[in-house]
Specification:
single chain; mainly alpha; two-stranded antiparallel ribbon; two-stranded antiparallel sheet; 63% helix
């Protein structure tokens, strides 16, 4: 059997690594700006493009898809070639993958601050960008599967299993959740509405965390940790159980984001049950990682790379224990809509994804430049800055969460809400927001230390773009009948991929199909619920564009504390025309589902112009541009047409009267404002937004509690 000579492609890995560092620094800087605005709203500098609502999705997209995404590609392209003993299937596809992904990220940078967003968590980008993401992801998949097929290594190592699962599942999640009907090039409406949209979104949202932030990183852990520790992975059989149990169970857990909402109880229970079961395989991965270091713990003290990896795996273990705990209804009742969720996500993001990425970069860059790390001392400095940053970030958020969650539910001895004004609970936690921002600053400072260290490392070495390698050609497998069953599967990549696809599809099918089979009439049990008027629909789109859902929920849960504060709890039938749903994930401000008719039009006008004039001490930024900018009156007929195609019962031919209808409703609001001494015009964005806010929660007759 002859030895074949070939070359590993390090150049594309280098570019992905550079992109990882650059986008990571930018994404975290935007996150720091967003964190600062929670206690100093003027930090947006009076600019509509830098308000919290606009830049929060920019931060999440930059960190998830730009920082982590590029790190995944860098790690996969580096490790896969070496695990499979071959160059990547196609250099051209590698570079299409790289440049296509950077263009997608740039498009996010351009559109999100402009308010061009679907508002769906982790899926905010509009339909043309969604199509581009799908195409580039397929390019990545073809390159990966092609490389596996032309490998020189008989068996696929565990890291490859996780890469395959990540590719298949992200493709399925992204395509299903992105179903939408375009209105124009930069605007679309979700194919799903209300409860169905919520279920699809969190089936996607939870599993985007699972199969973009978790499974590819587990694959990277299985490759880079043994390399850095110079130890074999602890247990092959544990990795088998870990892999199959994790990918099968994870896909079911999404509904735990929607506990106590209008989602059917069976779906909530299903999400909770599978979330609790997830602890076992998740901790199996953590144990397999940490026990790989048996006999090497003395090196952890000296080696900053191992330090980063140990903390990363520990943070992973904490996050995957906390997730199932948060899916328990008694815990969720206090934690949801508070900063606990923010802390939970960032333990995973900063600790697991961030620290493992740093460890991989510190290991990989010297390898490709054929040199030693420039400074272990600087790497250790980065480690401690990052660790302290996580502590200063997370601990204040836990304190904030428990404080606010309990204050929301506090009653006096007479049975009256102790803190009826939501703002009083927000003001209580502002010091925690300051500490959180300080933690973010520490973490970001460590990143800049790393940037300097890696640049100096590269300068002292010589980059090898095409690294020479050799390996025997792959022999045709001949079964002896005694081979371990999973070893047989590992020799059959196409069969393995099909099995993986079946494992991840089962959960989605059993959760989503019953929801899809429900017709609108099956959900609508409230005859008084009507479609939005053209002006209200435009106001809703402005609300979405400004990112208001990032701070305000529209879901009153069936707790006495919430019905006393906001009014009647939310019903599934109220959301049948909501595309997308706007139930929210975090309350930085009060819930708005029953805000309609609660305040006069002038209150909303003044509140958007200067929030503190209506709510002294408010941390909401002013929105003066809504008073001066006009909405697109000409575009309203197209929006109505699109909604009708999606099943909203607007009458045929209504488009001819849309503009007249909108201006008639706007004139009433203008007259109402004029009566209170405020001059405006019917085409002003503020008028459309007021129309929407005054509609919220008024379809069913309830007595709304005063705040």
């Amino acid at each position: 059997m002859g030895i074949e000579k070939f070359h590993y492609d390090n150049k594309v890995v280098k570019y992905f690594a550079i992109a990882t560092v650059i986008w990571g620094a930018i994404g975290m800087l935007v996150g720091l700006l967003a964190a600062t605005q929670l206690f100093a709203p003027e930090a947006n500098m009076g600019n509509e493009y830098t308000t919290f609502g606009r830049i929060r999705p920019l931060h999440t997209n930059a960190v998830i898809f730009a920082f982590v995404g590029n790190a995944i590609f860098a790690g996969v392209y580096y490790s896969m070639q070496r695990l499979l003993k071959t160059r990547m299937f196609s250099d051209a596809l590698s570079w299409i993958n790289f440049w296509g992904w950077q263009i997608i990220i740039l498009s996010a940078v351009l559109t999100l601050p402009l308010g061009i967003t679907t508002s769906k968590e982790y899926a905010e980008l509009e339909w043309p960008i969604d199509i581009a993401i799908a195409l580039i992801w397929v390019v990545f998949g073809i390159n990966m599967i092609g490389t596996i097929i032309r490998r020189r290594e008989k068996h696929m190592y565990v890291a490859i299993w996780f890469y395959i699962a990540s590719f298949v599942t992200v493709a399925v999640l992204h395509v299903v959740n992105s179903f939408a009907l375009p209105v124009n090039f930069l605007k679309s409406y979700s194919a799903f509405a209300g409860v169905q949209d919520a279920l699809v979104q969190w089936w996607y949202g939870h599993n985007a965390v699972a199969f973009f932030l978790t499974t590819p990183y587990l694959g990277l852990m299985y490759y880079f940790l043994p390399k850095a520790a110079n130890r074999p992975i602890y247990s092959y059989k544990l990795s088998i159980v870990h892999f199959w149990a994790l990918i099968f169970l994870y896909i079911w857990a999404g509904p735990h984001h929607l506990l106590y909402t209008s989602l059917p109880e069976w779906a909530q229970a299903l999400g909770t049950a599978f979330s609790i079961m997830l602890i076992a395989p998740s901790w199996g991965g953590m144990v397999n990682g940490l026990l790989t270091l048996r006999g090497a713990w003395d090196r952890v003290k000296e080696d900053p790379i191992l330090k980063f990896m140990v903390v990363a795996i520990t943070a992973y273990g904490m996050a995957v224990f906390e997730g199932p705990m948060l899916s328990l209804k008694n815990v969720n009742a206090i934690a949801h809509y508070t900063d606990w969720i923010v802390a939970h996500v960032h333990i995973g993001g900063l600790g697991w994804n961030g620290f493992l990425t740093f460890g991989i970069l510190y290991w990989m860059i010297p390898q490709m430049w054929k040199t030693q790390l420039f400074s272990k001392k600087l790497a250790n400095t980065h480690f401690w800055l990052g660790t302290l940053g996580i502590v200063f970030y997370a601990l204040p958020m836990y304190v904030s969460a428990i404080t606010q969650g309990l204050m929301w539910k506090e009653f006096t001895a007479e049975g009256i809400l102790q803190y009826p004004n939501f703002l009083s609970t927000t003001l209580q936690i502002i010091p925690m927001y300051m500490l959180r921002a300080f933690g973010g600053l520490l973490y970001l400072s460590g990143v800049f230390v790393m940037v300097y260290n890696l640049i100096k490392t590269a300068k002292q070495g010589t980059f090898v773009p095409n690294e020479a390698a050799e390996a025997p050609a792959l022999e045709k497998a001949v079964s002896t009948g005694k081979e371990y069953w999973h070893r047989v599967w590992e020799r059959k990549p196409v069969f393995f991929t099909i099995l993986t696809t079946v494992a991840i599809l089962l959960g989605g099918i059993f959760e989503l199909i019953p929801s899809f089979m429900m017709k609108t009439k099956d959900v609508t049990t409230i005859a008084s619920v009507q479609p939005y008027t053209p002006l209200e629909l435009e106001g809703r789109d402005i609300y979405i564009s400004e990112g208001c859902v990032g701070c305000h929920s529209q879901m009153i849960r069936p707790f006495r504390s919430e019905t006393e504060r906001y009014g009647e709890y939310s019903k599934a039938g109220e959301f049948v025309y909501d595309r997308p749903f706007l139930w929210g994930s975090k309350r930085t401000g009060p819930d708005l589902h029953r805000v309609g008719a609660k305040y006069p039009d002038s209150w909303h006008y003044n509140h958007m112009y200067d929030p503190r004039s209506m709510s002294p001490g408010s941390t909401m930024p002013p929105y003066p541009w809504l008073l001066s900018q006009a909405y697109d009156l000409e575009g309203l007929p197209d929006k109505i047409t699109t909604m009708r195609k999606l099943g909203v019962p607007y009458e045929d031919g209504f488009e001819e009267d849309v503009q007249t209808n909108a201006l008639a409703q706007a004139d009433k609001i203008v007259k109402s404002l004029k009566a209170d001494g405020i001059e405006t015009v019917p085409e002003a964005k503020i008028v459309a937004l007021i129309a929407y806010l005054q509609r919220l929660g008024t379809d069913i007759k309830t007595e709304v509690a005063e705040n």
